[in-house]
Amino acid sequence: MKAKIYVTLKQSVLDPQGKTVQRALEQMNYKNVGSVRIGRFLEVELNCDDEKKAAEQIEEMSRKLFVNPNIEQFRYELEK
Amino acid sequence: MVESLPKDPLITPELIADHGLTPEEYERLKGILKREPTYTELGIFSVMWSEHCSYKNSRKQLKNFPTEGPQVLIKAGEENAGVIDVGDGWAVAFKVESHNHPSAVEPFQGAATGVGGILRDIFTMGARPVINMNSLRFGRPNSGQVQQLVDGVVGGIAHYGNCMGIPTIGGDVYYDETYETNCLVNAFSLGVMKINEIQRGEATGVGNPVFYVGAATGKDGIHGATFASTELTEESEAKRSSVQVGDPFMEKLLLEACLELFQTDHIVGIQDMGAAGLTCSTCETASRGGSGVEIDVALVPQREANMTPYEILLSESQERMLVIVKKGREEAVHKIFEKWDLHAVEIGHVTDDGLMRVKYNGKVVAEIPAREIADDAPLYDPPATKPRYLKAVSAWKLSELPQPGSDMTGILTKLLSEPTIGSKKDIYRRYDHMVRTGTVVLPGSDAAVFWMREADKYLSLSADCNGRYCYLDPVMGSRIAVAESARNIVCSGGRPLALTDCLNFGNPTKPEIYWQFKACVEGLKEGCEAFNTPVTGGNVSFYNENPEGAIDPTPLVVMVGQIDKKEHITTQWFKKEGDVVCLLDGLQDDQLAGIGGSEYLRRIHDLKTGCPPVMELEKEKALQDVLLEAIRSGIIRSAHDVSEGGLAVCAAECCFTAPMELESEAVVLGAKLDFSPVARRTPRHDALLFGEQQSRVIVSLAPENLTALEEMAGKAGVQCDLLGTVGGGELTIMVNGETLIKGEVKELGKAWRDAYANAAKTSE
Amino acid sequence: MKIGIVVFPGSNCDYDCLTSFSRLAGEEGLRAETKYVWHKESAPETFDAYVLPGGFSYGDYLRCGAIARFSPIMEEVKAHAEAGRPVIGICNGFQILCEAGLLPGALYMNRDLNFICEHVFLRTERNDTIFTSECRKGEVLNIPIAHGEGNYYADDETLERLEGENLVAFRYCTKDGLVKPEVNPNGSRNNIAGIFNKERTILGMMPHPERAAEIGLGSDDGRKIIVSLLKSLAK
């Protein structure tokens, strides 16, 4: 099973990278750009057929390792 | 009329307590306002009267520090940072500040924003920051948690400083159990400017507009200042939203824009928004200017929708500045900021009524006398009791310690492998320490030496504090902190000018902690007076403690000195085969073994006890004066002072600490030394080799200059013992015909270089 | 001669480049005007050479050099380069040149993921260029690096072309000039520290010659590169 995990900064946390890219796009004349947020994307292969168990594991891994809960949040998708 | 907002919570005793205010402080607040506060005002008072902003528990003690001298241009407490004259119209602004609590909960961002904050303090003075240093204290590196913490803190400092293009050229690091759950992150910065470019944090001139510039305000760090003023507990984990995210790129733009602005005469004052954000900056500028300031917080650029005035005022979002602009110059100021892609916003103006008036969409939500809130903060003199442990530790005697075995080389190797003693290269190679091309002595010598190219001046800097000494004897330990930093500067060829301090302690409401604090302040004061080095500022960090106890008192000192001529720059490593090695010893006391509080006692015998080494200020001063005289006369090739690990570690470090890359210096030079002259004063071998006696410096010089050195020392009453000669690939140390230490310098050097990596590998 | 030192928002070795280029020109008795060029200037005066200095243009956000390549000045730099006039990119400047397509390949995260600041040894691969004429062929230079993303990558085909056409300028090596994996500080392919364009009029390098341009800073080997360029411009 494969898990795709998206880690982003919490909405309330400043994202300097996103802000800088947003300003650059504006200066490049993309007038319709709203906010830009930059995050991380992870793919984790799991040797596990039980979807519920996999989900539990991924959530635990995310909380423990992939994400700093002070500033980041995550969501994920599981693929067979 | 001051109005409450519909959604404001009711002010209850619980809410007041949640704001860290005591019932007495609340009464005092009402006395100043002559009415009940609004919720917004309660928030303002809570941050302004937090320990972090008001120094309410420490100010009475800090008044004892010497703060004046002919070199002082701006004194401690007057502005964001003190300013010192370095000659020919040039001045330096510098300061050290703690970011301990934020770093404990979010190491990378906590440390990064610590660097960002101190940099703003420096460049708001009108100076271009050219030097960063930091002083770090961690637990033992054999746990994964501490390794992650080290990695995060160092990474955060590197991220911010490297991006800003300011070299991080020195500092100090200790790894000790006492800092296991309370790491210390103290960041120092120094900037250079022409004396006539000094800026003020004042709001003057009625009607002058107040500009806000930099990052938008978010909800981050709300109550950061009160957060830094409480103990770390499990609950504080939950308060994690207090940690801010730093944006060094934004700060770089702010720095360049502000420096460009300072070249004009468009502004009357500037202040950064640090702890307590907009609140503190408006109050302080008004208070300093003897004026009032009126702002409308609805005009403040906001990162999130629906922020309340309370949140906007208390936010600690980073990289923001308040600028007081001369009326009529608004356009010119806008133009400069826009060049740097920054957007300045006029949020208010200077008034003459002495009030900090905050509006929200035109409604007055807070109106507070600015001078009173800043200057009439409560001041405490908490009870102080001499800690009970002191009796036991000071009664400990060397005779209680078993005589050491015969493997002194093994002990030496073990001490060199201590991460506190060993090389810090793993850390400083992650810092850009060469940008601005002024780092004339690379990190790794006693003091950092920097050539300020724009001013053509050489500075020497050293950060020091042995917390264990301060635990065992706070007065002596603090005195040693000042003396050692001065000694390091002298070893590099400089004369001490002034210092900044960061006082890291436990909970001051505990009488034993407060006693430690008072004693340390006393020790620092004595040290400052002895070396004519006034305190130009700094900060106090209390509540470095957890349910198991407080950290060892750690009054960190960063001293700034000046090297008058390039030729005087001296480093700690041996330079030339055949040179003679001498010990300059200011104390020469045979009763004091210097083993109490030593690394040897702590790491080899697992003891944290004894009296720390004795340091007599007059004798120390005599030693430093002779050493500087000798260096200036051109006869000294290397100078390295004895500190952690004692005389043997000091001698070993002279052999192998030359930067490996520099071909012009010999990388490895052994020495044949005979410690018999010193052994006459300190007969026990362990105390002789590993005792940390103060006021001692190992120097090397050409044989033909020995007489000259002996004469200088003799005149000053400083002992000068000939120890041996430089040469070969081995370090041997003999005493009365017996070889105590014999080792390949390459091997010893390897133990020293791999210290952190090896310590991080060994798990308990 | 006129040398333009491009200042992007976030550049931080601009001062070091300016002071070292102008001082070395003076020491060599060459008349050189060294000036900062603000990145928003799209058609500034004509320069004989451009220097893209180190730093963190746009905070190195997104990718190093990714945003800077869109600065107005880069149009001018490209036209200048296409006309065969010299450009040197140092550290972040090298990254920008790669992002802008003026040099092949890319620079990414160091192998051990950390920023590294230290002196390294470089082997000069050829001395018949305007940037290396003051060096001996194979000469080992002691010059510091200071970067987090200096790991040079190019695909096999590109690498083969670079090697085949002798376009590698410098390689990380031992003190004695041996190119070995253990002295590769960042994981760069073939120990590459710097490369030329096909015409050898553009040099991109991660190490900082301007930080090793006077003996007081530990090494003055970097002056050879700067002086080579200055002398070629004087001709």
Helices and strands in order:
The complex is a heterotrimer of chains A (80), B (764) and C (235).
Chain A: E1 2-9, H1 16-27, E2 40-45, H2 51-66, E3 72-79
Antiparallel strand pairs in A: 1-2, 1-3
Chain B: H1 13-18, H2 23-33, H3 39-48, H4 51-54, H5 59-62, E1 72-74, E2 82-87, E3 90-98, H6 100-105, H7 107-123, E4 128-138, H8 144-164, E5 168-175, E6 184-194, E7 209-214, H9 224-227, H10 234-238, H11 248-262, E8 267-272, H12 277-289, E9 292-296, H13 309-314, E10 320-325, H14 330-339, E11 344-351, E12 355-360, E13 363-369, H15 370-375, H16 389-395, H17 408-416, H18 425-428, E14 439-441, E15 448-452, E16 457-464, H19 467-472, H20 474-491, E17 495-504, H21 511-531, E18 535-541, E19 545-546, E20 549-550, E21 554-563, E22 580-585, H22 599-604, H23 617-632, E23 638-641, H24 646-656, E24 671-674, H25 676-679, H26 685-690, E25 696-701, H27 706-716, E26 719-726, E27 730-735, E28 738-744, H28 745-753, H29 755-761
Parallel strand pairs in B: 4-5, 9-12, 17-18, 24-27
Antiparallel strand pairs in B: 1-2, 2-3, 3-6, 4-6, 7-10, 7-11, 8-10, 9-11, 12-13, 14-15, 15-16, 16-21, 17-21, 19-20, 22-25, 22-26, 23-25, 24-26, 27-28
Helix pairs in contact in B: 7-8, 7-11, 8-11, 11-14, 17-28, 20-21, 20-23, 23-27, 24-28
Chain C: E1 2-7, H1 14-27, E2 33-38, E3 49-52, H2 72-82, E4 87-90, H3 92-99, E5 106-108, E6 116-124, E7 140-147, E8 151-153, H4 156-164, E9 168-173, E10 192-196, E11 202-205, H5 222-234
Parallel strand pairs in C: 1-2, 1-3, 3-4, 4-11
Antiparallel strand pairs in C: 5-8, 6-7, 6-9, 9-10, 10-11
Helix pairs in contact in C: 1-5
Question: What can be said about this structure in brief?
Answer:
With 80 residues, chain A is an alpha+beta fold. Chain A has two helices and three strands.
Which key features would you list for this structure?
heterotrimer; A: 80 residues; alpha+beta; Mth169, Chain: A; three-stranded antiparallel sheet; 2 helices; 3 strands; B: 764 residues; Phosphoribosyl-aminoimidazole Synthetase, Chain A, domain 2; 60s Ribosomal Protein L30, Chain: A; 3 domains; seven-stranded mixed sheet; 29 helices; 28 strands; 36% helix
